[in-house]
Amino acid sequence: MTHEDMLKAFVRNGISGSGTNGDLPFTPSDITFGTETELQTAIKGSRESVDLPRTIESSNYFYNIFRRIGRGDAPRKLIHGLERYLSGNGDSIWENSFVCFPRVCLSPSADAVFKDDLLADKKDGDKGYRSDACKYTINRGGTECLRVPVSYLLKLALSDVIGSGPPAPDIVFRKGIALMECFTNDNTSPETHSFRVNSAGQKGIAAAAARDMSRRFLFTQLLVAYANERFRLRQNDQEVFIYFSPHPPVRQKNLNGCISDAFYRELFMSPCLSGWAKGEQKHAYMHLCHEVLSRSHLNAVVKLKEAGIITNELIVLPNTSNISLANNGTHLSQGSRRLASLLKDPSSGFTGFHEKYVSDLVVKIVEHFLPLFVGTYSASPYRIDFKDFHPERVLGFLSHELDFTHLRMLWRRWRKKADIRVFKRSITPFGPAWLDGLVSSFFRLRGDCVPDFRLIDYLVCLMSTERSPALNGMPGNSAALKKDLAELGVFHPSMSLYLLFKPREYDVMGFSGFEGRHYSLFEGFEYDFGRAALLQAFVTSLAFSLVLEGKVTHRHIPDTPFVESERRQIIFNASIGIPTFYMKTDTGNLFLKYIVMNTPGVRNSRRYPGYIRVPLKHYLETLVRTLKEDSGPLPEIFDMPACLDDLEDRVTGSMSGSVASRLINAVVEGAGARKALDLDSEEFNLAAERYYRTGLRKKHIRESLAIFKHDLSQLEKKIITHDGQVRAALNDIVPEGGAVPYLMNTRKHLLEERLPAEELRRLIRLMILTEHAEAEQEERERETHDTAPVHRAGNA
Questions:
Q1: pLDDT score at 256
Q2: What is the mean pLDDT of residues 272-296?
Q3: Cystine design at 233: which of 238, 308, 309, 587 (Cβ 3.0–4.6 Å)?
Q4: Helical H segments across 555-615, by residue range
Q5: Quick check: 119 and 104 in contact, CB under 8 A?
Q6: CA–CA gap between residue 18 and residue 365 (Å, rounded)
């Protein structure tokens, strides 16, 4: 496959790079999209009531540790750590605990769903139940109870909503059954997928994306509130909360430090009851992912020593159980109707080989623009104390993601940025806790506050090897790279390749597009997530334009590990808040070189001969200028001027408009401090978790209610006037007076979390009806066009 062959295939099908006719892929008239959100769960209750502490105390692991300590075979600090976790919980918050409630609370339809999900193979009931089915039904106080994760609780609650109480209208019942597939649980955190394939519509990509995510969030909040009441969770001292929070919880990290990896998986890994025909096999796969990442993190420490970052034998070994799978992000998949149509039609001459060639090149181009998203639209602020500033702790998986040269540059600049300097010289902890505490206190060393630590703490992408580049446009390159990485102890061939911006192939996913996996936490749906979705589509379409005009080819961005690392270091620098990065003066990356040549403030590096020093802020400003001035008619096609002006405000000046600064300010204010570094790491990070669980969750609910109110008004004005079935269902669900007044009447009690189960059931059914009506309306509006291929964002 050559660049000319790929161009001929596009031209033959009427697609050019100019975009003057709006024929580029991923423009508003072409794009489809879906999202996957990973959420944090927590249960408020006493140690005696909540399942997690009860499970720990009754476990063989806990008993065996006691016996080993009694014999002198294990240090007492193991049991002290467990006791601190169990007894030192002033907020009575237990993140990622299972719930336990009487089975009699389930309606017959919800109980039938539970029985079906316990099958070893949902497509073949004759194979009986899973071998671990007994774990999810237990006897407590003579009562048969269900013991399930909160992620699965959501599905049971939805099943109960449509199967209990007054019979649900038929269209609501059928739609509710369909929506169950959007609640999966392959990971520790609940994952929810878009209710349907979205398109830009009349209001544009940003508004559609905000509606998609906000509605699903509100729907999830209602399901949790319903479960708290209907399944007697609050009554039994197990109040469930669900919210956006990007980091593994602080207390869960502490617990992980004093238990084995096998026991950690027993406590927190999802049983995968929903979403897969053979859930037990999926559960085993998630165990494999945890084992691989834990081993990979240990191997990363070895590579830090090889890179010269660890210079002596005094290191703090990472735990054999890595907790990074408990992080939470948002995945935004965007597909192209035009590309899917070409790939579906054999006569087009556009095949999977063409798709692979152009997709890999688009990914490489888009990666240069990803620093624009980091901290500006999404963020995950995190405090690191001096005592924790060991490279083997804070550099995470970076030694698997960056070339050693860039890794050393990043580490030097990070140490310079952080408050760890003594007599103008950066120092790192020595190892013994008492000594590090003494040094930190005496010299007032405060460490650092990082704007988007999730991108550092998690394996977000994998660097290519010399012989197996991941993005050279050749079929099978991902499999070859995974094989190489498996031999190096970094990855496993059965796992999906991790990338920040991932191609989604038509033959595999049923749509042709890309998945943005670089998002952490959004403060707002419309102002932050919606604009990020619009910018992702804009940058992707611009990348296609550059490719189809022949301005950028694979030759311009060589597929070597060093060049790959050179562009990705900028993303990681932005996530840490490092103000500069370095580029080779003779870099083979001509696309990066073009951007940097137009960046002000660039100078030759005095420290690194043959490199130039680039201010990150000026680089971001140049990227915005490139989007404004070098994108032809695309800004007009996307209606981007306001969004680009807003982006410019976020990356310039005081950064007060960025999500990172807004989140940090809210956390600091809630903790009663002046700035982040006035708090130690535990104070700041626990305050952040508290804000995400309370203030930010309520803010998200209020915004979601406002968006849903608008949607309800449109439902009453437009759809029900020509859809008698929807009108009859609405009259059945909502009391006299209309849907919008009803929503406003229940809003106050909903925000105060004291709405009875009957009213919550009514609201959930109203949301299901709205989703059904809008989907039917969209289907009628595009019935003369090709139906967009169904797709959803998927976690690796």
A1: 93
A2: 92
A3: 238
A4: 561-576, 590-597
A5: no
A6: 17
**Cα–Cα–Cα angle for 690, 696, 700, nearest 5°?**
145
Between the alpha carbon of residue 534 and those of residues 20, 318, 428, the distances in Å are 19, 39, 41
Structural contact between residues 511 and 335, judged by C-beta atoms closer than 8 angstroms: yes
Name residue, tokens 């020093």: 613
Provide the β-strand partners of residue 33.
Answer: 198, 334
Q: 291 is written with which tokens?
A: 């084992």
* Secondary-structure breakdown of the chain: helix, strand, coil percentages, each rounded to the nearest 5: 55, 10, 35
How does strand 191-193 pair with strand 501-504? unpaired
- The answer for residues whose C-beta is within 8 angstroms of residue 465's C-beta and 6 or more apart is 481, 484, 485, 488, 561
Are the C-beta atoms of 275 and 792 separated by less than 8 Å?
A: no
Residue with token string 């703090």: 316
Is the pTM here over 0.90, yes or no?
yes
Question: What is the enclosing helix (H) or strand (E) of 334?
Answer: strand 330-336
Return the number of other C-beta atoms located less than 10 Å from residue 211's C-beta. 22
| pLDDT band, very low/low/confident/very high, at 19 (cuts 50, 70, 90) | low
> How many angstroms separate the CA atoms of 436 and 430, rounded?
6
* Cα–Cα distances in angstroms (integers) from residue 474 to residues 123, 336, 401, in the given order: 36, 21, 21
CA distance 603 to 491: 38
| Statement: residue 179 has pLDDT above 50 | yes
- What is the SS3 assignment for 655? coil
Alpha helices by DSSP H, listed for 90-204, are 108-117, 150-163, 170-179
Q: Could you tell me if 362 and 544 are in contact, meaning their C-beta atoms sit under 8 angstroms apart?
A: yes
Identify whether the C-beta of residue 195 lies closer than 8 Å to the C-beta of residue 183: no
**What angle is formed at CA 380 by the lines to CA 376 and CA 384, rounded to 5 degrees?**
125
Q: Which of 743, 692, 687 is nearest to 715 (CA)?
A: 743
As a whole number of angstroms, the distance between CA 199 and CA 417 comes to 43
- List pLDDT tens digits, range 378-410: 999 999 999 999 999 999 999 999 999 999 999
How many residues comprise the chain? 796
Of 255, 251, 277, give the one whose Cα is nearest residue 264. 255
| pLDDT attached to residue 783 | 67
Q: How many helices (H) and strands (E) does the chain have?
A: 31, 20
**pLDDT for residue 794 is more than 50:** no
The amino acid present at 177, given as its one-letter code, is: I
